[in-house]
Amino acid sequence: MARRLVAAGFPAADVRVLIGPDAKHGNLVARFRGTGTGGRPIIGFAHLDVVPARRADWSVDPFTFLEKDGYFYGRGTTDDKVGDAILVA
Known about the structure:
The strands form two sheets. A two-stranded antiparallel ribbon has the order 1-2. A two-stranded antiparallel sheet has the order 3-4.
């Protein structure tokens, strides 16, 4: 993702990969600089990680969407992966 951001025009100095305790985990931080003056900064965040969904841990099938009593049930129903797409679009 860092390479894609640099290829899209982000200055390399504004894109950092922070490696976590092992090589499989880390964070990407990218600065999107504005062109005007006096503006206020904003922050956007999202994640790509996926946690295991063991059927035994759920009271319903995690792979079948369910709406019940005004709540949504199912793996990813409250996730924010669309934020990843928005931030790099």
